[in-house]
Amino acid sequence: MSANEEETTSKRRILEAASKIFAEKGYDGARVDEIAKRAAVNKALIYYYFPKGKEELLERLFRETLETAVGLMAIPEMRDFDFSDRAGTIRLLHKFLDVLEERQDILRVMLMESLKRSPVNDLIFDMIREIVASIFAAVDSAAGSAMPDREFAMVMEFFTGIMPLLSYVVYHEAWMERFGVKESDLRERFITAFIGTHFDYSATTYKQALPMEEIAKAMIDKDTGDGR
Q1: Model-wide pTM > 0.85
Q2: Residue 52: left if φ>0, alpha if ψ -120 to 50, beta else—which one?
Q3: Where are the domains of the chain?
Q4: How far apart are CA 25 and CA 2, in angstroms?
């Protein structure tokens, strides 16, 4: 194994261990010593790769989650997405939920930390603002004019779009256990509700087909610093 491959493997083990520890104990309760033990690496190696310790680990995990969600916007189904295509909307939401559920641990941490007044809380809301701003910029470009009532649209995206998806991913297993619902049935009902509360309104707000590939590129460029 080359030095670069070894570094990549070590970083991935550290991040995966951090994700589990954060999910089990929360950000405040997590300790770098525990993360090192779970990852089977020396504690010093964590600080070598991530000098700010667990704060940097959490930020990296949040960023990876954002990039994963953004990457979904570049899949073929998202090209010139049409809100009126109900079957396509359902397929798309299944893809989103499949990918987000793979990152359930870190999404649970994001939800917990978003309730606290801390630098981590600031990071979460800054990232959400980046997501929404990139969507607005791409829609404005496609429409040739600025979206009216941008503040209202931001409220809509956060409270009827981002938060319901996050809540479903974090709570669906507990809901299934508590109410004895099959996962397939619960997901079908959630998607139906989500379309009715978010997508149907979005169809009237974003009158033209959304240029999803442009949105994804804008968000990735902004996140990586390549959008200069």
Answers
A1: no
A2: alpha
A3: 1-51, 55-224
A4: 34
